[in-house]
């Protein structure tokens, strides 16, 4: 008999739990499909029959019904009467214009170039190489750079993430007193727009690759903050804009391996004036078996990039190599924490 160290031992519970895990793959695919079809958008005005939804989405009515029935059993949509569905709070996140929208996150995960990478994670486990590169023949960001439509979707999906996953982290930290905030790798500016909403005296620099920031104009205009945001194109592997009294690196560091991260952190340190600080917004992983959403975000990094999510000690060690020190961590148990970083004190 094998030695079981810990966990449930009741056979029925074990099988039920593993069956639920097995269903997760199908649930993810179904959510991506209904997000792509815009089903939730069509239900914004109230419940509709499956036949009406099928006509609006150009789909097969009975197949659509079976998918919605399965999702409704998990609380995503609700069957308000036979073959008629309405929104639930979970389904509302699939609407395009919901304040909590995650529609583009699910649309992105359903694209073959992403979906197939996750499906090839065995390659990563065996070789240590990103499954994305194995499947697509290039890195994630090189792939996106050659496909403006997918770059736009990726940036919107990251914006969804900034609004949802990072909202708690932003609310937990006092950005007061910062006059010029430089968002390094800020995509289309969703995060700094969220911050500027709270701090009307602050100005910001949005810094990302030229082909990314060139697509930010429409969103920045829609925020009402365009006059307070300077968009700058460049590579954080070469340099970052100087003159900020605070720099923010949000969900960027975990996309990088340690060597790449040291280059970026070193460039930021070189740009920081005395007294400036760096705010790293990333999952910070607890040790051991402690549950944390970042442990699954780390699998995204494993499959798609050469980066990784880090523990607090791993982050501290990384910072120390470029003359930076971790001052405090805000929201350590949150999906994304804020690590407050300053220049290391002279020896």
UniProtKB/TrEMBL annotation:
GO terms for biological process: methylation. The active site is at 254 (proton acceptor). Residues 121-324 form the O-methyltransferase C-terminal domain. PROSITE patterns: SAM_OMT_II (PS51683). Pfam families: Dimerisation, Methyltransf_2. It comes from the Bacteria. GO terms for molecular function: O-methyltransferase activity; protein dimerization activity. Keywords: Methyltransferase, S-adenosyl-L-methionine, Transferase. Gene3D superfamilies: 1.10.287.1350, Vaccinia Virus protein VP39, Winged helix-like DNA-binding domain superfamily/Winged helix DNA-binding domain. Residues 22-95 form the O-methyltransferase dimerisation domain. InterPro entries: COMT-like (IPR016461), COMT_C (IPR001077), COMT_dimerisation (IPR012967), SAM-dependent_MTases_sf (IPR029063), WH-like_DNA-bd_sf (IPR036388), WH_DNA-bd_sf (IPR036390). This is Methyltransferase. It comes from Gandjariella thermophila.
């Amino acid at each position: 008999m094998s030695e079981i160290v810990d966990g449930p031992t009741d056979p029925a519970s074990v099988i039920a739990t593993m069956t639920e895990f097995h269903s997760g793959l199908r649930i993810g695919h179904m959510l991506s499909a209904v997000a792509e079809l815009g089903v939730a958008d069509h239900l914004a005005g109230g419940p509709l029959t499956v036949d009406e939804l099928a006509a609006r989405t150009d789909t097969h009515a009975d197949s659509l019904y079976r998918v919605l029935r399965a999702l409704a059993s998990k609380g995503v949509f609700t069957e308000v009467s036979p073959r008629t569905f309405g929104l639930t709070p979970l389904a509302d996140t699939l609407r395009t214009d919901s304040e909590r929208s995650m529609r583009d996150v699910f649309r992105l995960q359903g694209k073959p170039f992403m979906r197939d990478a996750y499906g090839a994670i065995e390659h990563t486990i065996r070789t240590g190489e990103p499954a994305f590169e194995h499947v697509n023949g290039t890195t994630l960001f090189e792939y996106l750079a050659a496909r403006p439509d997918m770059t736009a979707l990726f940036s919107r999906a990251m914006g969804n993430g900034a609004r949802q996953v990072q909202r708690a982290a932003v609310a937990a930290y006092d950005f007061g007193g910062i006059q010029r905030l430089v968002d390094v790798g800020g995509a289309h500016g969703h995060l700094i727009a969220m911050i500027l909403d709270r701090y009307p005296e602050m100005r910001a620099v949005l810094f990302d690759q030229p082909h990314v920031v060139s697509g930010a104009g429409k969103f920045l205009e829609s925020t009402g903050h365009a006059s307070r945001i300077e968009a700058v194109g460049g590579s954080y592997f070469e340099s970052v804009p100087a003159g900020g009294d605070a720099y923010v690196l949000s969900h960027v560091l975990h996309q990088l391996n340690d060597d790449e991260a040291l280059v970026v952190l070193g460039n930021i340190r070189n740009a920081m004036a005395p007294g400036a600080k760096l705010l790293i917004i990333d999952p910070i992983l607890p040790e051991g078996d402690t549950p944390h959403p970042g442990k699954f975000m780390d699998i995204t990094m494993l499959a798609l990039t050469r980066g990784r999510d880090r523990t607090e000690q791993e982050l501290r060690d990384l910072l120390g190599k470029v003359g930076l020190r971790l001052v405090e961590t805000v929201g350590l148990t949150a999906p994304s924490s804020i690590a407050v970083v300053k220049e290391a004190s002279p020896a």
